[in-house]
Amino acid sequence: MDPRDNPYAPGAGSPPPELAGRDEIIERAAVALDRIRAKRASRSLILYGLRGVGKTVLLNKISLDAEARGFAIVPIEAPEERSLPSLLAPALRAALIRLNRGEALRTAASKAFRSLGSFVNSLKVKYNDIELSTEFGTEKGIADSGDLELDLSDLLSEIGHAGAERGTAVVLAIDELQYVAKEQLAALISALHRVSQHQLPITMVAAGLPQLVGQTGKAKSYAERLFEFTPIDRLDDQAARDALCKPAEREGVKFTEGAIEEILLQTKGYPYFLQEWGKHSWKIAKRSPINQTDAQTATAQALAELDASFFRVRFDRLTPAEKRYLRAMAELGPGPHRSGDIADELGKRVTAIAPVRNSLITKGMIYSRSHGDTAFTVPLFDGFMRRVMPEGFP
Ligand SMILES: Nc1ncnc2c1ncn2[C@@H]1O[C@H](COP(=O)(O)OP(=O)(O)OP(=O)(O)O)[C@@H](O)[C@H]1O
Ligand SMILES: [Mg+2]
């Protein structure tokens, strides 16, 4: 069918044509943010889940909705290997500027700008990737100790006051939070704890891989009470059908029941894969309805394309030992698996393969749900590992 009308949007953070199955979470986030703006108790939200389940689009949707309701959003994406202060400083500066909409600075806002200056000055030696001019001066005694935990608490408090002065709340919207280094994550949690104790209108909505739950708990033991951990999972049957069928229906195109079943079976309801299968089915079908044979051809094409890109780029970042580890996991199925079983599969001792397991966790390829078990962070990766290393793990 006409590629110009193909409605599907596979890609990292690409807004889907139909954001299916997430209404309840969106509503819950809106309530939490409105409560914080009204200075009522509410917890910061952490959305966690596997690769491609739709965390980023959900975070963006929550942010955009909040922005439309007058919140000041501070969008941040944490890449690997960047310090949190270097990401926060420019993002907070931009948010302060937006908060003041070009008007003359009020008291709390000017103090917040100067606190940001202190923050940058006191930390730029330790975190030398901070790049921000401090043209707005500094504030003596605030955010200038050189200790990230103290200074970030000061800074977020002052920004909270600046938000309150404008009758709104400030929302740190942080994606890929699992990449923030442990002591910096601890500082962030502690700062959020302090602002919530003082009922300042500043909070965080964050997204990341499942290991984030354990990471925050290890960084600060009270994290579980400070945050509301919200699992983002694959879509249930009805939501997956909506994600697949509604965009096509708007273009006057239907799927047969056989096509839908094939696509739900293959994608297991994972949002990113639904977009890929939708895209390929559309491309293959000659006319509506898209039938089961079209969907089966789409499976072959989608898998070939994923193997060459989505899965492949992750595979190419692995060392030979890491590849063997993942291949052994794949032999056992989708998982999660016990570390002992993986070690047995490899014919090694658990302690001998622990370093490889740790480096795979750091790379975000696997995570541990509970002590001693291991699962893939990328859905359907087990099938890919078996296809790409058909001979096993010599
Ligand atoms: N609720 C949904 N309904 C339909 N499609 C969705 C939904 N959520 C996300 N998608 C689609 O899934 C794909 C992945 O979304 P997104 O990038 O937000 O995932 P993610 O969880 O952030 O992945 P990663 O961990 O790799 O960053 C996108 O193509 C998006 O359009
Ligand atoms: Mg994402």
Task: Report on the architecture of this protein.
With about 400 residues, the chain is α/β, with parallel strands linked by helices. It is about 55% helix and about 10% strand. It contains 17 helices and 8 strands. The protein has helices spanning about 25-35, 55-70, 85-100, 105-125, 150-165, 180-195, 210-220, 225, 235-250, 255-265, 270-285, 290-310, 310-315, 320-330, 340-345, 350-360, 380-390; strands at about 45-50, 70-75, 170-175, 200-210, 225-230, 335-340, 365, 375. The strands form 2 sheets. Strands 2-3-4-1-5 form a 5-stranded parallel sheet, sandwiched between helices. Strands 6-8-7 form a 3-stranded antiparallel sheet. α6 (about 180-195) links the parallel β3 and β4. The longest helix has 18 residues, at about 150-165. The radius of gyration is 23 Å and the shape is globular. The model has no long low-confidence stretch (mean pLDDT about 95). The protein binds adenosine-5'-triphosphate (ATP) and magnesium ion. Adenosine-5'-triphosphate binds next to α2 and α11.
List the main descriptive attributes of the protein structure presented here:
394 residues, 3-stranded antiparallel β-sheet, 17 helices, 54% helix, 9% strand, binds adenosine-5'-triphosphate
Produce a short descriptive summary.
The chain is of the alpha/beta class and 394 residues long. Helices cover 54% and strands 9% of the residues.
Distance between the termini: 45 Å
Provide the list of bound ligands, each named once: adenosine-5'-triphosphate, magnesium ion
Number of E strands: 8
- Largest sheet, strands/sense/barrel: 5 strands, parallel
Mean pLDDT: 95
Q: What spatial form do the alpha-carbon principal axes imply?
A: globular
Strand content is 5-15%
Helical element count?
17
What structural category characterises the helix and strand content? alpha/beta
Helical content class: 40-55%
Radius of gyration, in Å, reads 23 Å
The residue ranges in which pLDDT falls below 50 over 5 or more consecutive positions are: none
List SSEs in N-to-C order. Answer: HEHEHHHEHEHHEHHHHHHEHHEEH
